[in-house]
Amino acid sequence: MAWIGDANNMLYSWLQAAEVFGFHLNVSTPKGYDIDHTLVSTKRFTFFDSPSDACACAHLVNTDVWTSMGYEEENAARLKAFDGFIVDAAKMARAAPDALFMH
Hints:
globular, 5-stranded parallel beta sheet, 5 strands, alpha/beta
């Protein structure tokens, strides 16, 4: 599985699920939106600087909104930070042929 986006509650839930269900997670977050390692107890993930590389061979590619409720004042900064982190056809082409996309 690949996670593309900021380290938010959804990513932490996927990291917990990876530990429980025994799968591996490729993670790519923009600089400044990184994983808080004090909240993570699993080693079932690999971090990628490139979101495209994180999608390579993934069977599931997951992302979330760039600006969650309560962060609207950060929208302009987030749009700049998340440039290149949209999951598009090129990133999905790097995933497994039967990959699913979830938001």
